[in-house]
Every structure is written in C-alpha cells, then in structure tokens.
Amino acid sequence: xxxxxxxxxTATIACSVALFEDDVLFASDYAEIGRxxxxxxxxxxxxxxxxxxxDRILVNCGPGSFTGVRIGISxxxxxxxxxxxxxxxxxxxALVAAQALKQLETPRPVCVxxxxxxxxxFLQNFSSEGEPLAPFASLTPEQAAIxxxxxxxxxxxxxxxxxxVGDIDHFPILPNASQIALxxxxxxxxxxxxxxxxKPDAQPAKAF
Length: 208
Description:
Blueprint (H helix, E strand, L loop, with lengths): L3 E6 L4 E8 L2 E9 L4 H10 L9 E5 L5 H18 L2 E5 L1 H11 L7 E8 L2 E7 L10 E3 L1 H7 L4 E3 L3 H8 L3 E3 L37
Parallel strand pairs: 1-4, 4-5, 6-9, 9-10
Antiparallel strand pairs: 1-2, 2-3, 6-7, 7-8
C-alpha cells in the first residue's frame, strides 16, 4: 500500500469523501444531502477501501455551515488520532475556485460566492492560477456585486449573484473532496481549525 490521503468535505449541503493513493484518486463518495452530515459522513468513510484508513487527512475548514464545518473537523481529528495520521485543512472557497478553473478552456480569474446564511455570501476573488487575490468576506448581495473582480462567478451563490451583476458567466459549484488535487499544495496546509466567516447564530446566555 502506498501513501494514502483521505479528504473530507462537509462544509456545505454536499458531503463528500475521497481516498487517494500516491496522489491518484482511489475511491470517493459525493452526495448533496442538505442536512444529516453527521449521519452520512462516517458510513461514507467506512465504505472506502480499508475503511478509508490513510497516512494523511485533509479537511474543509470553511467558510461554510457552522455545523458542517464542525462535523468534518471533529471526524478528521478523531481519525487522525486513531490512525496516527497527519492532518491539515483547506479553504472551501479555494477548492470551488479550482473546480471552476478546471471547467474553463482558458484560465481566467474567478470570483467565488458561497451562500453564507442570513442573506449574505462568502465572497473571494482568485487569479487565473487559483491564488486568492484578497481575504474572503461575508457580504450582502449588493456589497458582493460591487466586489466581483472577474467575469466568472462560481459557487453555491453564483446564480443569485450573477442575476444582480448582470451579463456574466456563472457556475453553481459545490466543493467535492475528489477534486482536492486541483488545489495548490501550499493552500492545503491550513491548521485544522474552523473558519466560520460569520459569528454563530446562537450566542451564550449572559450572566446576570
């Protein structure tokens, strides 16, 4: 058995896992489930060859769903501890940008817009090489339309934002763990900590 990598992605309505051996995709599972990531994730990993056991683990750290991000990272950390595996994270937006670039005949800058809840979008602009041009931000649709620096929008909010911006290409893409090889190596070394992008909806009760 060669060097194996398990990729886990639960930051959006999609739930996906992928097992690579010597950087070649070995097996994967992808489903757009909306909710129920906690119930779907472990069985999906268990159905991979050798129950997904790997030397390295990559997990989507967000920004994305609070619950989804927590589930993915918690599972990744538990498996890394059990297997003695190395663990790192990656950005949800970087993977979506890479998937969008793969669909283009000629590389062009891409703006990624993902649904962020409460009517906002997580937005980040990327170069034609998939490198972030600035930090991501959580913006209202009107603010996001001003910040689009490309003639292509990709992501779960792409269709909505394209209607506001006007005549612009758009790709309604969700992150897929099987495509993680598209992301540059230096962008897959994040600490395995959640990147929520927004404050949680529920706040701790104040002491009186």
